[in-house]
Amino acid sequence: MKLTAGEKILQTVVVVLLALLCVSVLYPFLYMLAISLNDGADAARGGVYLIPRDLTFINYEIVLGNEVIRNSYLITIARTVVGTIGGLIVTLLIAYGLSYRGLPLRSTILSYILITMLFNGGLVPFYIQLNNLGLLNTFWVYILPGLFSVWNMFVMLKFIQGIPEALIESAELDGAGPVRTLMQIVIPLSKPMLAALGLFTAVGHWNDWFAGAFFVTDQSLIPVQTFLQQLLSASDISAVLGSNSNQEALARSSQMQNITLMSIKMAVVMVSALPILCVYPFLQKYFVKGVLVGSVKG
Question: Rounded CA gap, 33 and 51, in Å?
Answer without folding.
Answer: 8
